[in-house]
Amino acid sequence: MHGCSVHQSSVRRDANDPQSTRLGGCEYGCIVIDDRCFATCETRHPSGVTLQLAYRGCFLSNCRQACGVHCGNRVWPSDACAACVDNSCCAPANACATDVNCNDLVRCEANCQDMTCDASCRTRYPAGVTGYDAVKSCVTMSCAAMCP
């Protein structure tokens, strides 16, 4: 059993939180790392988010490469973009993925189709803006050619 499975069992057993377990099961059912699917799961099981983010932090720190998951626990626009983010922007991407406020903003913007919606998300989740902007800035500065 890899370290994250042990950590996940420990986090969930110690917390004895059925919402976290349901959230994890729901997210596991997402076909790929899909922000919209995850957002739906988090809406259905909001009280499980904190523990799930603790597990995600363990996973990203200890198991990401072995499991073939890219930094930030996201699907990037292309393999070249994902490789660039993995090499240049992993720290801010993982920090955002494990911060509830930044995570909420990412999930919100994943459902947007225009700038008005994006602005609304930033207003709705102001505590996530700094972390989210750190990822966007790093990707823009380091990976612009690979991540249009």
Describe the structure.
This protein has 148 residues and is mainly α. The chain has two domains: 1-69, no CATH class; 71-148, no CATH class. The protein has ten helices and no strands. It has helices at residues 3-15, 18-28, 35-44, 49-62, 64-67, 79-88, 90-97, 100-110, 115-124, 129-143. Helix 6 crosses helix 10. It is globular, with a radius of gyration of 15 Å. The N and C termini lie far apart (38 Å). Residues 10-15 have low confidence and may be disordered.
Oligomerization category of the chains in this entry = single chain
Largest sheet: none
Distance between the termini: 38 Å
Number of strands: 0
| Derived structural class | mainly alpha
Q: State mean pLDDT (0 to 100 scale).
A: 80
The unreliable regions are: 10-15
- Portion in strands: under 5%
Number of helices: 10
Indicate the radius of gyration in whole angstroms: 15 Å
Helix content: over 70%
Q: What spatial form do the alpha-carbon principal axes imply?
A: globular
SSE order in H/E notation? HHHHHHHHHH
Number of domain units: 2
